[in-house]
Amino acid sequence: MDIDVKEIVKISHDLYKRQLVSGKAGNISVRSKLENKDIIAISPTLKSLKDLKEEEIVLVDLEGNVLTKGKPSSEVNLHLEIYKARNDVNAIVHTHSPYATGFAFSSKKIKRLEGFGKITTPFLEEIDYLPPGSIELAKNAAKAIGNEDVLILKHHGVLCVADQLKEAANLAEFVEDIAKTQFITHTLNLSEEI
Length: 194
Ligand SMILES: [Zn+2]
Prior knowledge:
Number of helices: 5
Oligomer: single chain
Bound molecules: zinc ion
Structural class: alpha+beta
Distance between the termini: 55 Å
Shape: globular
């Protein structure tokens, strides 16, 4: 399967436009099979997804060896460990989108609202804080994600996984939206005036 770099660029720009990533935060990747080997195309470190270019996308193998020029996202381990743990996942979107990340920095959990597939537990799965970019965070996330498609990284951000990049990006938007809805509902409930 060829790597659709155009799609990675398009979705990167889209995530920025949808205000799910800002500055140089946020990263995305796609897994492809090339001659039976897993190749991960990932956004580069220290670049904004806002104006990511095709030639800036970095290819790595599952062990993290860099196969092209450029330096992969500092969160590359997080992506690689998830791919190792989940054969069904071929795309990952990681954001620090404001509402969902607000929840991640608080003691509140994001409710698993309708539209989130089968509701088995009341809240989105989350893991305790470990330093961004660390192998400990990556391994913990890979262990905690189980069959979930969203993982909240406490005091950090959001991780969404899917078979297709477009799906993972839509999920990132959906998580941000339900966090926003939950926040608005909570705020309205504080007032008895309306
Ligand atoms: Zn991050």
